[in-house]
Amino acid sequence: MEDGRQEIRTLEMHTGGEPVRIVTDGYPPIPGATILAKRRHARDRLDHLRRLLMFEPRGHFDMYGVIPVEPDLPDADLAVLFMHNEGYSTMCGHAVVALGRYAVDRGLVAAQEPETEVRIQCPCGLVTAFVEVQDGRSGRVRFTSVPAFAFALERTVETRTYGPVTLDIGYGGAFYALAPAGQFGLDVRTSRTRDLVDAAGEITAAVKAQVALEHPDDADLAFLYGTILTDGRDAAPGAPSANICVFAESQVDRSPTGSGVTARIAVQHRRGRTALGESRSFESVTGALFTGRALAETRVGRFPAVTVEVAGEAHYCGEARFFLEPGDEIGAGFLLR
Question: What share of the chain is helix, strand, coil (3-state, %, to 5)?
């Protein structure tokens, strides 16, 4: 800008109440031969812009964002990085649901009725979204992610408050620890969010300290993104299974968590609790619903895996022009929580 202010423009969406702040202009080019190299560049060289958009006064503790980048896969329609209060994720299902509509409505892909395919390169790999289109308007989105797998079943970790805790670890584009909230005397539908966050945070810390994760494709994928506390309904089709996902730096997902649903389906299938093609529903803290189902069996290195389809709805809620005046140190970003 002429007065020296840096300006970034965004499109604002939400999926089940979980924000999706999509950068549309003003971000510098992000170099890198691969998308994971671009992710490292953004983390190491451009993190001040993540803080600018995610933190107060423009964002908040639980803000979530998307940075479009140049794809390095020839069959990708677009490529994106994901950002949040701690850094940069490798996969985000709620954002993919929003990005499917965004790609169709912005003409990044040619709209076709009744459904338009959108190929999105994420740091974890290529994700394919299918966007319902009727009378030129985009709607509900389903997507198939990278192969998902159960990394560990009934792993025990030691915690300060709860002693030994038994949990599963699943991968759905990111790794999650999975445990029923009842194990901690909590209920995902009725307990205070603060209590659920504290329990999930303690589990995340314990797993990070005690379990060495691995991913056959790239070491950059081998980190625990968060913990999902469930209502324990892993083997019960029919009514939705409620969960709360606490990821990054104690950030609470308002949606059912697309990559988390993918991980839950992979673990359920590995345990023999859901069959191929069997649809399950998952409910978030806002009451939003995603559906998920395992489509096919495959492998990821030494791990038996499944391809999972997840479906949900996203909505537009605004556009923004953000800038930082010279000398505004507080405006560069802060968090109070």
Answer: 20, 40, 35
Residue 33: Cβ within 10 Å count: 8
Position of tokens 């994971």?
36
DSSP 139: E
**DSSP symbol at 33:** S
- Helices and strands (DSSP H and E) totals, the chain: 5, 18
Q: What is the DSSP letter of 205?
A: H
- β-pairing verdict for 175-180 and 224-230: parallel
In 204-279, which ranges are E strands? Answer: 224-230, 241-247, 251-252
Look up residue 134 and give its amino acid.
Q
Q: Are the C-beta atoms of residues 159 and 202 closer than 8 Å to each other? A: yes
Give the pLDDT confidence score for residue 71 in this predicted structure.
97
Per-residue pLDDT of 8-34, as tens digits, reads 999 999 999 999 999 999 999 999 999
Task: Report which of 20, 15, 167, 175 is spatially closest to residue 82, judged by C-alpha positions.
Answer: 20
Whole-number Å distance between alpha carbons of 272 and 199? 28
Task: Cite the beta strand spans of 16-104 per DSSP E.
Answer: 18-25, 65-69, 78-83, 88-89
pTM: 0.96
DSSP 8-state symbol, 19: E
The one catalytic residue in 92, 122, 124, 245 is 92
Are residues 140 and 132 in contact, defined by beta-carbon separation less than 8 angstroms?
yes
Query: Does the annotation mark 122 as catalytic?
Result: no
Q: Is 152 helix (H, G, I), strand (E, B) or coil?
A: strand
Please write the tens of the pLDDT for every residue from 86-124: 999 999 999 999 999 999 999 999 999 999 999 999 999
How confident is the model at residue 236, as a pLDDT?
73
Q: Hey, what amino acid is at 324?
A: L
β-strand pairing of 137-144 with 148-159: unpaired
SS3 98: helix
CA angle (180, 229, 82) in 5-degree steps: 150
Q: Name 262's Cβ contacts closer than 8 Å, sequence gap at least 6.
A: 93, 145, 148, 172, 173, 292, 308, 310
Q: Is 157 helix (H, G, I), strand (E, B) or coil?
A: strand
